[in-house]
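User: Before I run my own analysis I want an independent prediction to cross-check against. Here's the chain; please return only the structure tokens and, at the end, one sentence I can use as a sanity check.
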Amino acid sequence: MNMDRSDVNAAFSADTLMIDPEQETEKIVAALRNQLRGTLRKRGLVLGLSGGIDSSVCAALAARAVGAKNVLALFMPENDSDPESLRLGRTVAEAFGIDSVVEDIGPSLQAMGCYDRRDGFIRELVPGYTAEWASKVVISSALEGDGYNISYLVVQDPQGQQTRLRMPPSVYLGIVAATNMKQRTRKQLEYFHADRLNYAVVGTPNRLEYDQGFFVKNGDGAADVKPIAHLYKSQVYQLAAYLGVPDEICRRPPTTDTYSLPQTQEEFYFSLPYDRMDLCLYGLNHGLPADVVARAAGLSADQMSRVWADIGAKRRATRYLHLAPQFVEPVDEVARWE
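Assistant: Structure tokens:
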């Protein structure tokens, strides 16, 4: 239904993103079944279960789609993981009757030099940095300063003193490259178990993460099915409540659980908390007036402009993450084969 400007002004709010969770669940479950049986020809589903809201909802949907006995959850802690993530992941698996396996990837990452490589780049800025220190990467908010995304290194010494440092590109890229080994190692194990069971791998990004490139290529971005990539994160929370995801997981702030210092998704990547980012992204996607979206998201006109500019910048910067391998010539015979 077309609405005039006065209708849009009155109607756009967080309620605009409300869904019918029962109907949405049925749609996703049906799609998963069709994808497994028709396209992928697999027996079940494997997913990494982090104790976060997205993977928890995907686990619940997988169990509904193929039965809990045909779903395998992997817990893949490493040296920097919050122990709470493993506990919460086990809580989800138990809640939905899903079999699970613990794969501690810390020794593998250590053997590949993940931590040593990362720490070597950190020591270019902090020569005294050792294993007794902790660190994380944070990003400047698009609402502040000149609107550019500037990444900073935050280090904490053994006495608990934190220091924030501007990183040159070589240090930033080196730290990220080493850290991305974590997501790629996890995905390798997901596909090991998928191959041995003839299962498909579930990817767990929501729409905000998928749109903004908040994933590692051939790491957590790799999957056979991505059942919630069309849903805004606030809609994922609505599904969680309907599906019976444990309350403590629904209350847990979204976190990357990647660095040795606690780190929220907001300080690492997004300009705003997820519920306000959802409104901004929805408004941009649907061509709503900036002043209407700004009012719903609690932003000034200047802040609204900065957030939309940041969304566009992240889309441009991460476009390559969504691309298939580039060929010199198309291989049409494979695409046509049935």
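Sanity check: The chain has a mean pLDDT of 93.
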